[in-house]
Amino acid sequence: MLEKFLKQTSFQDNEDYREHLEFIVPERFNFAYDVMDAWAEECPDALALWWVNDKGDNRRISFGEMKELTDRTAAYFSSLGIGSGDMVMLILKRRLEFWLSVLALHKIGAITIPATHMLTSKDIVYRNRKAHIKAIVCVGDTYVLEQVEKASQQYAVNQILVSVGPEVPAGYHDWHAEWKDVPLPLNLQRVSGGTDTMLAYFTSGTSGEPKLVAHDYLYALGHLTTGVFWHHLHPGSIHLTVADTGWGKAAWGKLYGHWIAGAAVFVYDQERFDACRMMEAIERYRITSFCAPPTVYRFMVHEDMSRYDLSSLEHCTTAGEALNASVFDKFKAATGLSLYEGFGQTETTMTLGTMPWVTPKPGSMGLPNPQYDIDLIKPDGTSCQNGEQGEIIVRTDNVIPMGLFKGYYGDDALTRQVWHDGVYHTGDLAWRDEDGYYWFVGRTDDVIKSSGYRIGPFEVESALMTHPSVVECAVTGVPDPFRGHVVKATIVLKQEWKDKAGDGLVKELQEHVKKETAPYKYPRIVEFVEELPKTISGKIRRVEIRQQDESSYKDV
User: Fold this and answer.
1) pLDDT at position 34
2) Which residues of the chain register pLDDT less than 50?
3) How far is CA 540 from CA 114, 442, 487, in A?
4) Which of 57, 189, 230, 500 has the highest count of CB atoms within 10 angstroms of its CB?
5) Which of 549, 556, 452, 469 is nearest to 513 (CA)?
6) Domain ranges of the chain
């Protein structure tokens, strides 16, 4: 399979990878036909998807069966009036129907909009107005159905509504009652591919209203490097990624690159994350490849990992936030495996990462993926030297890399703000060490300018998180008449530390930060709170904290 899409399919080291990574791009590439149906023809009995839930249900699906199921789903959607170019929102958690729907929509040329089950009616109305959604396919959970119903009352449009159960309200199509009776199409024909729009994700909205990120069909091919190289997958691999299907990370770990590699995607349909049950699943189902945010690994190493047989694991990866060195060390001590970090955005595939042939540096974003022309620039547009802080950019004047978004759907002006003059501006700040590894600093909007210093919140947050009292924290700047801004830490304490909240603990945390990082970066203001403001994806909204503080400290 790889020979169809790469001129060289294996690499010895990073220099070899950087010099010889070259894609072969089929005309009108469509993942559902060119990868999934191709595997169904070549290896129909090979395992494609293994779905289990926390109730003990278990379903193994081969590539051959996957073709039959997705063909039927494509026929079903067509029978409902869904066709090429139509926007279809999927609110399906980790239900099997999510994978059938995504591939079926690719086959008929409809545009997939994955969405989290945590959306409120307000969120759904906003998405309807932004994307003109023709159909919603959702789980039949009480909360989800209530939000969809409330939204429909505010957004007057005749929408196709499909429930996969267990509840199927009046006015909804019943997937399981209708799907099985739809005749299979004799010969599905691709109507979309290549640079046509395939998929669109709403961003988390950490710094404003969520943006609708549009990707073409080549986005799926762009994830080849994610699955084949970063996740280090091959035929026979069984890969588990911990991620909600409503967010872009699902494309990194539950679709595309894994199937190009011929690996099996393992889905653990768990209603609530539990580290022990996750390790039990790894042991029981002999998972070979695992990816999760650092927070998940942090929960795992806090348990007695010796109780679980994790010997089936061959390779483990992490993304979403920087990895604490202590978590890296504890996991390696328990399993013998290093953790390989990766970095990207909803607008991209993996842009930076630690590939299997690279020695990990815990907390680093890794090295540039040669699929992207990466640089660090200063505010004046010149390139940074090693050790200098700057914005991560992607140069596109020579070639637009596969995996980079098409733009923000319906908003050319917003697209031009971040992508102009042959440069895509990520808005992420980092610095590069002498070995070429990148280290995350924060978002450009989050940088604190204090007494002539530029302080990235991430480093201060990382220092605070090493203190035993801290559950989570957010670092922001507040106005100061003398320094411009000063560093403030908003902290959620562990339960056993909450009665110690006061001047003594504030002083202790300040001194702790001075020892962990440059002393001038310590938080001069510390506030203890019960919870931090967050998006529905769980990302901290620092912008909300800043807005509150600008009002509170404007007269200081």
Assistant:
1) 97
2) 556
3) 21, 12, 17
4) 230
5) 469
6) 453-552
